[in-house]
Amino acid sequence: MSVRETALAALYARLGAALAARNPAPKVLRNETVPQRLPPGGLVVVSDGETVEETPILSPLAWAIEHRAEVEVVAASGATLDALLVDIATAIAGDRTLGGAVEWAQPGAPTFDDAETEGAAAARAASVPVTLSFTVAGSPLA
What we know:
Blueprint (H helix, E strand, L loop, with lengths): L2 H17 L7 E4 L12 E15 L4 E14 L2 H17 L9 E4 L3 E5 L7 E15 L5
Parallel strand pairs: 1-2
Antiparallel strand pairs: 2-3, 3-6, 4-6, 5-6
Helix pairs in contact: 1-2
């Protein structure tokens, strides 16, 4: 498994474990589209995102990578959305290395939008960029 995939899987696992304690717990997915029905606890979707920077380090050859994952959060109310965003920030700040998978994980400021879901009058959505910084040996694909 590549370092990038390990980092993304660690982010997904960290958020899933941290948010499972909420009552009701949100549904946490990876690389899925937002379903038509919104679960009672809300929805969190971790998307792979893209690499935003590759910096070579010479002798021995390695690459410092900054990869930006996207965490989409959808909730039935603004208060629930805000609570989920706080819990996500707390989960990442509690272990910036995501169990040793990255050198540093940093959530960014969310962007907000309205979301249309079946069975919910007016859902709110936010997209949070999470920058994952790690180093790979030899190739950025490693």
